[in-house]
Amino acid sequence: MVKPKGRRIGLIRLSAIGDVCHAVATVQAIQRHAPEDEITWIIGRTEAALIGDLPGINFIIFDKKLGLAGFRNVLKAIPEPFDVLLHMQVSFRANLLATAVPAKAKWGFPKHLSKELHGLVVNRRATMPDRPHVLEGFQHFAYALGVPPFEPTWAIPIAQEDHLWVRERLTEHQPYAVIAPSASNPERNWLVDRYAALAEHLQTRGYGVVLTASPAEAEVVLAQKIVASANCDVINLAGQTSLKQLLAVVAKAGLVIAPDSGTAHMAVTQNTPTIGLYAHSNPQRTGPYKYQNLTIDAYHKNLERLKPESSKTPKWGTRLKGAQLMEDISLSQVINKVDEVLRTLQLNDDSAT
Description:
By secondary structure, the protein is of the alpha/beta class. It is built from 14 helices and twelve strands. The longest helix is centred in the last third of the chain and has 22 residues, at 331-352.
């Protein structure tokens, strides 16, 4: 049987890990609705290491480190114009790329969510709520293509060798919780002594504690400081995992605790309860989707204190700055939320047996 010819759909979402995770739910919804469509995703090199093996999608790697050559490489990899381009990023670099990508229709964000000349690049604008979560904003690109409303789900492949890597290191520590202490901006990291005390509490509740982080020196050092401060055993995997191995780690975890970071959103794709620690960005916009009820929100308190004139109707996406803001998240707040999650997990285990 000949497969019916569908639309040639291009998609631009270069970065970052969390946003790419959000976009996967939309892309896979399009695939379910119109499997005849051919989807090509233009994506960053790091992000492709996580999702570049998604079935049924052609990936073109954009390597920003190559400068103009990176742009040329993308354009050479596009054999003919797309019927539709979903331009799902508003950064200047992404807008510049979208200008050159050939497509009959270029769908972008509405005016109130646009910036950095985004509106000059697109010729269609998806209709979106005034204040959507990032994932909800992405959903509306699918709706613009005729996909009916959907609940986000994810199917990101994890190889058996990555699951085996986790089993070899963590089987004896089951059940375990993951603390992913680092955000891309160090200002968004919680305090070392509080992370350490949280690890001690998790151990008293019968959970092994696993630290994860990228190989970046600052993140590895932060993990080492937490280990040195904690009066309990901590499995430190900081800088030791690939993105796929990290995905396998959070998939098997009972719980993940993290600031605004890619790891938190990776955990959501695996349906792992995730406690987000937020003081600099609005968790209603960027918090762990599906687990926003578990978020510790110091953002709105800080917004009212630092920007009282705009606290009632702040610009959506307003970020706060300040190295001390995470101090407003107390240890007791996080422990109470952890205990809430663990009680729920225990109840679910009891009902299943």
